[in-house]
Amino acid sequence: MAMNLGPSEGDDALLTTINTTPLVDVMLVLLIIFLITIPVVTTSVKVELPREVQQPRETKPDNIILSVNAQGQAFLYDAPVRSHTELTKQLQKMAEKKPQPDVQIRGDAKTDFEAVGRVLYAAQMAGLTKVRFVTDPQGPATSAPQGK
Question: What is the pLDDT along the chain (148 residues), one digit of tens a residue?
Fold first, then answer.
């Protein structure tokens, strides 16, 4: 019985390099499989998304109308509000009515979000739950304010 322990002078040398061709082939096949199956997986669940419907809202006499002008000044109906605490106290009195009135917030398109947020926070602190934002359905679509 003969045993070969290493290359002899006439035999071929050992192949010590790694052949990466099969690895590349496997990776390409996996890439193709993922490219084909991912779009099928993400769109397989059929969901009907809600559509936006603009319905005119009726202004009832008991609705609370809060307005914020371009300078950030808050108004309760047509009367200017002096402070945040005064507005909260007035809204708390109105929130005690049964059924609770709707709050309609009319914010100027050029006002800061912070001013409208303060009015919304006052309504929340007063315990009012039905809050709506009034928009102009006929107005042109505006983009974000541009810097000067």
Answer: 555 555 556 556 677 788 888 899 999 999 998 888 877 666 555 666 656 566 666 666 678 888 888 888 888 888 888 888 888 888 888 888 888 888 888 888 888 889 889 999 999 988 888 888 887 766 555 444 444 4
Q: Are 91 and 130 within 8 A, CB to CB? A: no
- C-alpha to C-alpha distances, 114 to 18, 47, 118, 145, nearest whole angstrom: 64, 36, 6, 15
40 within domain boundaries: no
CATH code where residue 95 lies: 3.30.420.270
Give the pair of three-digit tokens for residue 64. Answer: 């609370």
Specify whether the CB–CB gap between 107 and 68 falls below 8 A: yes
Q: What is the pTM of this model?
A: 0.53
